[in-house]
Predict the 3D structure of the following.
Amino acid sequence: MDPEAKSFQSGVSDVALETLKRRLVDLVEPLNDAQLLELADGIHEMLRQRRTVRQHHAERMNDRARHGLDLRI
């Protein structure tokens, strides 16, 4: 299993995701190629930003753990 998949939980069931995918395909069907590519680029950028934030957070937590800080609340 992809390590990122374990760290990311959408809260959407598999059935709901399949329904969403079908609806999304229906919605984007009338778009021309340029519009569809622009939409895909926007989604891809959002994914890049999420990954960057998660990576930054993991690095900061690892740095804190290496420096022996007590992270207990």
